[in-house]
Design a protein that fits this description.
The complex is a heterodimer of chains A (155) and B (788).
Chain A: E1 3-9, E2 12-18, H1 24-31, E3 50-53, E4 56-59, E5 72-74, H2 87-94, H3 104-117, H4 123-129, H5 141-154
Parallel strand pairs in A: 1-5
Antiparallel strand pairs in A: 1-2, 3-4, 3-5
Chain B: H1 13-16, E1 33-39, E2 45-51, H2 53-57, E3 61-66, H3 67-70, E4 98-99, E5 105-111, H4 114-121, E6 125-130, H5 137-140, E7 156-162, H6 167-173, E8 176-187, E9 196-202, E10 207-212, H7 217-228, E11 235-238, H8 254-266, E12 270-273, H9 276-282, E13 286-297, E14 303-315, H10 328-331, E15 342-351, H11 365-383, H12 387-394, E16 403-404, E17 410-411, H13 416-427, H14 429-441, E18 445-454, H15 462-467, E19 476-482, E20 488-492, H16 501-513, E21 520-523, H17 541-568, E22 575-577, E23 582-584, E24 587-592, H18 594-603, E25 616-621, E26 630-639, E27 646-656, H19 663-683, E28 714-717, H20 735-752, H21 766-779, H22 782-785
Helix pairs in contact in B: 11-12, 11-20, 16-17, 17-18, 19-20
Chain lengths: 155, 788
C-alpha cells in the first residue's frame, strides 16, 4: 500500500506515492535520483546522509519519506545559489577540508546549520557542532578551519 | 617550476562538494537487481541444512543461491602472498558446510529492490551446529584449541622470521636487558563509504563490467578473471569515486566474485551494497598482534640488540595480502630510525574465528614503530634518561646513508636528528619539561610523548616484492597524451580514493609541458581506459605513479622537441625546451609552443618521415628501491586524575617525505593519518566475545574519533629528497598513523608515571586510565591491575 506525499526538495515541488517504510534517504537517492546524499552506516551515527529539513539538519536515514510529507528539504544538490557555490562549499574547497568526499555533503550541510545557529563559533563550538558527522580522512583539522573561514566570510 | 610545490586547490573537489561524485551505489543501470547476503550469526558452526524455498517464492525475488549452488562453478578466494610453508586453506565464496566467522557468507538473495532482498533473507532457514570458537591469537595455537581449518594444525598459517647475526653476543655484552609485552589490538579501518559492487554482463559481446569500490581495479580484474575463469581482456573493472579505503579495499572480496557471477547467471545488472554492520564483520581489520620484546642496552641507553617474538591474528581466512603484513612489513622495519646492530624476529600467523586481518594504513610499519618507540621510552624510564636523548644516542647518523639495517633493507636517505630537534623546538620541549615538573607538584598529570618513525613507501620494486613473497608487480603505469589542441590527458594505474592524484599529477604535467593544470585531465580507475596498473596503496602514488607520469612527460617533450625542430627548420640538437617553449639556441625569436607542436603532430604535417604522428608517451616505472620517509611527532596531553580523561594540549608533527608536490595534500594526509593513529591509541578497538561474536559491530559501539575527540595539529617538515626517483619524493599517506599511536601512548604513560603506572595496553580509554589510577592509589600495583 503506497502512501501519497508532497514535499519541496531544493525548491522544487514533488508529489509521489511511496511505501510507508521507505527511508527518506532512499527516497531522495533512489526515487528522486539525488545521490549526493550518502549512506555510511545503519545506525544514524555517521551523518553522511545529513540534509536540511524545514531549516533543521536531520539524518535522512532516520526518517521515513512519509515523515517528510509537507516539508521543505535542502540536499547538497540544492545548496548553490544561481550557480555559485555556498560560502561553506567554497571554504571546504579552499582549505582542503575533504579527501574522499564521502562525508562531505553531510558535513557541509551540518556546517551550514551550525553557522546558522552560531554565526561566530569558537573552535570548541565547531567541533561540538560537527559531532554527529564522521570523517575518516581529514582528522577534522581542515574542516574546522573551513567552518571558521566560512564564518568569517559571513561576517 | 611553477606548480610543483604549490598549495594548489584540488581539481577533484568541485564535483565532490556539490554532490556530483558518483560512488558505486550512485550508479544505476536499467533493470538492476539487488543482492543481499545472509550471513552467519555464529563465530564457528557446522552448516547442516539450508531451506530457501520460501525465500525463492517471495514476490520480487529472482533467485536465491547457496554455497552448494555455486560450488564447482568458480574457484576459491586467492591469497596473493607466499611465505615459506604457508598454509592456504580454501576460502569459498559462499560457505558450503561450515562457517568460520560471524558474517561468513551463507546465502545470497537477488531481488527487484533492496527492501525485498532484505525481507527475503528472513525467510531462509538455516540449521547451524555451533562449534567451539577461538578468537585470541595467543590461545589459538595452544593444545586443544578449536581448529579453524583442518589444513592448518595448531591454527598456524606460518612461522616466519630471521635469526639475525650476532644477537646472542649483543645480549651477552648488555648492561641491561629491557623486556616488554605489547598488545597491538585489532582496529577496523572504517572507510566512510562501505564496499559495493555492481556488475553487468553483455552476453552477445561476452563482456563483463564490474564497478567496485576498490583501490586496485587492475588487481581485481586479474584475480576476478582467475577465480571466475573469465577472459581478462573481456573483463572491465571500474573503480568509480571511492569513499576512502585505508587498505581495506586492496583485495579481491567474495562479493565481487559473487555479484559478477550473478550478473552472468541472470543476464541482468546486479548490485550489492555493503551495510556498515557487514563492513565491520567481513571487510578486513587491521593490527591485532602480541609482541614479546627483549632489548639489550648499555647504561648510556645505546641499543645493542633486539629480539622480537610475535603472534599475529589473521582472522578466519587469508585475505589477499594477509601473510605479508604481520611478517615482512613488520620485520623489515624493526630497526626504525635506529642503528641496532643485531635484530632477531619470529612471527607466528594464526587463524581464529574472527574477521580477516590485512593491511590497514601503515600495514606492519605502525606495529613495528609501536614496538620500537614504546621500547625506547621504556629504556629511558629504566635508565632515568630523557627519551629525546635516548633517541639521539641511537639514531642512524646522516653520514651512514644509504643505510642497510640489520633486517636486511637499505634506506635511501634520511636525517633524523634535524626532524627531532625541529619538533622539540616547535613544541618547546625544555620549557614543557619544566612545566611538567611544576604541575606534578600539584598532582597534575602532564605527559609528553615522542615518536620517531621510519616508513617504507613507494611500494615497490617488483624484485623486492617478489623476494619477499609478493610475486612482484610493484611498477606503475603513466601515460601522457597531448591532444591536437594542446590539452592533456593523463592515464595512471594508481587508483586514488581521496589522495588527490588528479591534482598532484596535473601539477607535474603542468610544469613539464608549460600548460595550466586546468588543461590536464587525469583519468584512473577504469581498466578499459588505463590498460595496466597496480593501484593506490603503500604510499606509492607520488613515488611510483607520479614518477611514471613525470617520465612520460619527458618522453613527450623529447618527441615534441624533434617536431619543433622540424617546424622551425633547425637541427634538433639546436632546439631546447626553455621551460615554456621550444627555442632555437641563440635565436629567442624562433620558437614553438607545445600547442603548436601538438597540432602538427596530430595533423601529421609537416612531420619528419621518421616520426610517428600523435603526441603521447607511456612509461611503466619500476623503482630500484622503496622510499623511506621519516620524522618525529610529539604529543602533549594532560590526564585528569579524577576521571582519567586525556586532554590534548599540543600535537606537533615534523615529517620528511622528500620533495613536496602539493603541501596542502601532504598536510591533509598527515592530519588524517594522525587522527587514525590517535584513534587506535585512545578510542578504537574491535572486540569479540569468546564465541567469536563481534561486540563492536556498529558505529554505536566502535569509537571512530569525532571532531571533538581530536585536537588541531601543528605540522612542519624537513626535506630530504629521495634518490630512488627523479622527483625526489617519498610518500606520506601512512606517516601520521605510524607516528601518532606510540607518541600518544608514550605521552599518556609519561603523564601517569608519577603514580607508578608503567604499562597500559591500548586503547587508553578514560575508563581504563581511571581504573589504573584507582589501582595505583590503592596499592601501587597500577600497572598490573589496570592493564585490561
Amino acid at each position: 500500500m503506497k502512501v501519497p506525499i508532497a514535499l519541496t526538495v531544493n525548491g522544487r515541488r514533488r508529489e509521489d506515492a511511496v511505501e510507508p517504510r521507505l527511508l527518506l534517504v532512499h527516497y531522495l537517492r533512489d526515487v528522486l535520483g539525488l545521490t549526493g546524499t550518502k549512506i555510511g552506516c545503519d545506525t544514524s551515527q555517521c551523518g553522511a546522509c545529513t540534509i536540511l529539513l524545514d531549516g533543521l539538519s536531520v539524518k535522512s536515514c532516520t526518517l521515513l519519506a512519509v515523515q517528510a510529507d509537507g516539508a521543505e528539504l535542502t540536499t547538497i544538490e540544492g545548496l548553490q545559489r544561481n550557480g555559485r557555490l555556498h560560502p561553506v562549499q567554497e571554504a571546504f574547497w579552499e582549505l582542503h577540508a575533504l579527501q574522499c568526499g564521502y562525508c562531505t555533503p553531510g558535513m557541509i550541510l551540518q556546517a551550514v546549520q551550525l553557522l546558522k545557529e552560531r554565526p561566530n563559533p569558537t573552535e570548541a563550538e565547531i567541533r561540538h557542532g560537527l559531532e554527529g558527522n564522521l570523517c575518516r580522512c581529514t582528522g577534522y583539522h581542515n574542516i574546522v578551519r573551513a567552518v571558521q573561514r566560512a564564518a568569517a566570510a559571513g561576517r | 617550476m611553477k606548480y610543483v610545490g604549490a598549495p594548489l586547490k584540488r581539481k577533484e573537489d568541485p564535483r565532490l562538494i556539490t554532490g556530483q561524485g558518483a560512488y558505486v551505489d550512485d550508479i544505476t543501470l536499467p533493470g538492476t537487481l539487488f543482492c543481499a547476503l545472509l550471513r552467519s550469526p555464529h563465530g564457528h558452526a557446522r552448516l547442516t541444512g539450508i531451506r530457501t524455498e520460501q525465500a525463492s517464492r517471495h514476490p520480487g525475488v529472482v533467485a536465491v543461491l547457496t554455497g552448494r549452488d555455486i560450488a564447482g562453478k568458480m574457484g576459491t578466494m586467492p591469497c596473493g602472498w607466499n611465505l615459506p610453508g604457508l598454509k592456504k586453506p580454501p576460502h569459498p565464496v559462499l560457505a558450503v558446510d561450515r562457517v568460520r566467522l560471524v558474517g561468513d557468507r551463507v546465502a545470497a538473495v537477488i531481488a527487484e529492490d533492496r527492501y525485498i532482498a532484505r525481507d527475503a533473507l528472513d525467510l531462509i532457514e538455516v540449521d547451524y551446529e555451533p562449534l567451539p570458537a577461538v578468537v585470541d591469537a595467543e590461545k589459538a595455537f595452544a593444545p586443544g584449541a578449536p581448529q579453524v581449518h583442518e589444513e592448518a594444525p595448531e591454527n598456524t598459517a606460518f612461522v616466519w622470521g630471521f635469526p639475525g647475526h650476532g644477537v646472542e653476543e649483543a645480549f651477552a655484552k648488555a648492561d641491561r636487558v629491557v623486556r616488554l609485552r605489547l598488545v597491538n589490538h585489532r582496529v577496523i579501518p572504517t572507510a566512510m563509504e562501505p564496499r559495493g559492487v555492481l556488475a553487468q554482463f553483455k552476453p552477445a559481446a561476452g563482456e563483463l563490467t564490474v564497478w567496485s569500490s576498490t583501490q586496485v581495479p587492475h588487481l581485481v580484474r586479474a584475480l576476478l578473471g582467475m577465480v571466475l575463469g573469465f577472459p581478462e581482456h573481456k573483463l572491465r573493472v571500474i573503480a568509480p569515486e571511492v569513499g576512502g579505503a585505508f587498505g581495506s579495499k586492496l583485495y579481491l572480496y567474495p562479493e565481487e566474485v559473487l555479484v559478477a557471477h550473478l550478473a552472468m547467471l541472470l543476464h541482468r545488472p546486479v548490485k550489492w551494497i555493503e551495510e556498515r554492520r557487514e563492513n565491520y564483520q567481513v571487510t578486513t581489520h587491521g593490527r591485532d598482534r602480541v609482541d614479546y620484546i627483549e632489548v639489550a642496552v648499555k647504561e648510556d641507553g645505546t641499543i645493542l640488540g633486539l629480539k622480537c617474538k610475535c603472534i599475529g591474528n589473521l582472522g578466519a581466512y587469508l585475505s589477499t595480502f594477509a601473510p605479508a603484513i604481520p611478517s615482512v612489513f613488520f620485520g623489515i622495519m624493526l630497526s626504525g630510525a635506529y642503528r641496532i646492530p643485531a635484530i632477531a624476529c619470529e612471527v607466528r600467523g594464526v587463524f581464529t574465528n574472527t574477521g580477516m586481518v590485512d593491511a590497514y594504513r601503515g600495514a606492519g610499519r605502525p606495529e613495528a614503530c609501536y614496538v620500537l618507540e614504546r621500547t625506547v621510552d621504556r629504556i629511558a624510564m629504566e635508565l632515568g634518561l630523557d627519551p629525546a636523548e635516548v633517541r639521539r644516542r641511537n639514531y642512524i647518523p646522516a653520514e651512514a646513508y644509504p643505510y642497510t639495517s640489520a633486517t636486511g633493507v637499505t634506506y635511501d636517505s634520511a636525517n633524523h636528528r634535524p626532524a627531532l630537534e625541529k619538533a622539540l623546538r616547535l613544541v618547546g620541549y625544555e620549557a614543557l619539561r619544566k612545566e611538567q615538573a611544576e604541575l606534578r607538584k600539584n598532582g597534575r598529570l602532564l605527559g609528553i610523548g615522542l615518536s620517531s618513525y621510519v616508513e617504507v613507501c613507494g611500494v615497490g620494486p617488483s624484485k623486492g616484492l617478489a623476494a619477499a613473497g609478493g610475486g612482484g608487480g610493484g611498477w606503475e603505469m603513466g601515460t601522457v597524451r597531448v591532444h591536437a589542441s594542446g590539452k592533456v590527458t593523463v592515464l595512471t594505474g594508481c587508483s586514488p580514493h581521496g589522495q588527490g592524484n588528479e591534482t598532484s599529477y596535473a601539477q607535474i604535467v603542468a610544469d613539464g609541458l608549460a600548460v595550466s593544470p586546468e588543461d590536464v585531465e587525469v583519468l584512473h580507475g577504469d581498466t578499459h581506459i588505463v590498460p595496466f596498473g597496480t593501484g593506490t596503496f603503500g604510499s606509492r602514488s607520488a613515488a611510483v605513479g607520479g614518477t611514471a607520469v613525470h617520465l612520460s612527460v619527458e618522453k613527450v617533450r623529447e618527441k615534441a622537441r624533434a617536431i619543433a625542430a622540424h617546424l622551425l627548420g633547425a637541427p634538433p640538437e639546436k632546439v631546447a625546451w626553455d621551460g615554456s617553449r621550444f627555442v632555437v639556441q641563440g635565436e629567442p625569436g624562433r620558437a614553438k609552443t607545445l600547442q603548436e607542436v601538438a597540432g602538427a603532430a596530430h595533423l601529421a604535417t609537416p612531420l619528419p618521415p621518421e616520426i610517428e604522428p600523435g603526441l603521447e608517451a607511456t612509461t611503466v616505472f619500476d623503482p630500484s628501491n622503496f622510499t623511506w620517509p621519516f620524522g618525529t611527532h610529539v604529543a602533549v596531553v594532560e590526564v585528569d586524575p579524577e576521571t582519567g580523561k586525556v586532554q590534548f594540549e599540543r600535537y606537533v608533527a615534523v615529517d620528511d617525505c622528500g620533495n613536496v608536490i602539493n603541501p596542502l595534500l601532504v598536510d591533509g594526509q598527515v592530519h588524517g593519518g594522525i587522527a587514525q593513529g590517535i584513534g587506535q591509541a585512545l578510542y578504537e578497538a574491535a572486540v569479540y566475545d569468546e564465541h567469536g561474536q563481534l561486540l563492536t559491530g556498529s558505529l554505536m559501539d566502535y569509537t571512530v574519533p569525532k571532531a571533538d575527540d581530536l585536537p588541531s595539529f601543528e605540522t612542519d617538515r624537513t626535506v630530504t629528497p629521495s634518490p630512488v626517483n627523479p622527483l625526489g619524493v617519498k610518500g606520506v599517506g601512512e606517516a601520521g598513523t605510524i607516528a601518532a599511536t606510540p607518541a600518544v601512548v608514550n605521552a599518556v604513560l609519561d603523564a601517569l608515571s608519577p603514580l607508578g603506572i608503567r604499562e597500559l595496553d591500548m586503547p587508553l580509554t578514560t575508563e581504563k586510565i581511571w581504573r589504573a589510577i584507582q589501582a595505583a592509589k590503592a596499592g601501587g600495583k597500577g600497572a598490573q591491575e589496570g592493564r585490561r
